[in-house]
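We both want to read discrete structure tokens more fluently, so let's practise on a single case. Once you have written the record down, we can walk along the chain together.
***
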Amino acid sequence: MSGHLRTALDLAALQVPVLPLRAGKVPFGNCPRCANNACGGRPNMKTPGPCSCLGPCHAWAAASTDSHVISSGPWRRAWRQAEAVAYHPGGAGWTVVDLDNADAMAWARAILPVTRTVRTTRGEHWLYLGAMPSANAVRPGVDIKSTMAYARWLGPGTGTITALPDVVRALAVKEPAAVRTAPRAVTMPAGAAGGACPHRTPAYLDRGIAMAERRITEASAAVHATVYRTFLAVLSTHGRCGCLTETHTARLFAAAQVKGESARHCADAWTNARIRLGL
């Protein structure tokens, strides 16, 4: 039995759906029976689970926890050629925040709750308990891998896995149609519920605002969407504890306006974010 197959069976026993990766760390392609979706069972790979050929033919959608399937003839042949083991995070009830460089890791340490961390070739995977839609390039160097995606298995990591926070869910949310509001000043109150701030220190908020400003000012495309997602992330973390002030909000609005956003759009994006979060 190959080492990859042994790892896959161990993960499957823990109800983590697995699949083999071939050279280049990519999934195995369709077999002749399934070429061009001739099998008809997994159009666009939107339905998880193996198709009737019982081979690892459909990337994340073929990921399985069935030890008999994983060690069957078609899979066993694939494991002999495999260069890595992958898993379907959403199928395991997880979300992976894939941090691809030092800046992305610095952002995560300033903004995201501490959770289980796995070292990668270029950065880290942060694992959270809970599934969500996957999304690529939600900010520079950051991808989200959960449903309809796969991630390489690089070991169990360190630390305790924690619940998927709203700030991560917000990264994959597209801005809804603007809620029309009357023009207003750049300095807007956060509308927080008040009460003691649960965060570690005031410096935690300052770092978060600085990272949010940097995210906006470094956006090279999709500035409109970046501003909204940034507002949503800030409010997800700090919008309910009363720690946001008009000064913080003005800094965010000013960063957005430097990138060409109008005061009206800043107000609309902030209002939309608050509505989505129920603030």
